[in-house]
Amino acid sequence: MANISIIRSSRPAGAPAETRLPTDELYFDLIELLFFAYRDFVGDPDEVLAKLGFGRAHHRVLHFVNRNPGMKVAELLDVLKITKQSLGRVLKQLIDEGYIVQKEGASDRRQRLLLFLAGMIDAEDREHVLRLIARSDSLANGSPARNGGQ
Q: HEC states along 8-68?
């Protein structure tokens, strides 16, 4: 729980308890309480992320990709309201470290679809996973698999 004893009282010490707070003071008190609640809410995840060399941007990307397998990069940009450059830096790190895999779209090869892998595989295994995904996609679409039908 947040230590909010540093927040000043909105009432003078001698004022009766039933004294109404000025609206502006009430808003400032609520804003301060929201700040402390947010700080405490994200504190533990921030520590875990820091150990992995990640920040909140990485956490948001991992969350939405995990919740929406096959999410398009364009959709993720729209949800997060960040630039391609910002996402590119974070996404590259997550892909390089094996937390996310990126594949091309089945109907439009320009699309980049994202899948969550939880950092459990190395680069060689990641390529194998991509081949399996491509094969299952092509079989689901009724067309022969790429890569020699592997």
A: CCCCCCCCCCCCCCCHHHHHHHHHHHHHHHHHHHHHHHHHHHHHHCCCHHHHHHHHHHHHC
Which run of H or of E encompasses 126?
A: helix 123-140
Instruction: Please write the tens of the pLDDT for every residue from 118-149.
Output: 655 566 665 666 566 566 555 555 655 444 44
Answer for the pair 109, 98: CB distance below 8 angstroms, yes or no: no
pTM score: 0.59
pLDDT digits (tens, 9 = 90+) for 7-50: 455 555 565 556 666 777 888 989 999 999 988 888 888 888 88
User: Rounded CA gap, 64 and 83, in Å?
Assistant: 16
With residue 118 as reference, give the H or E element that holds it: none
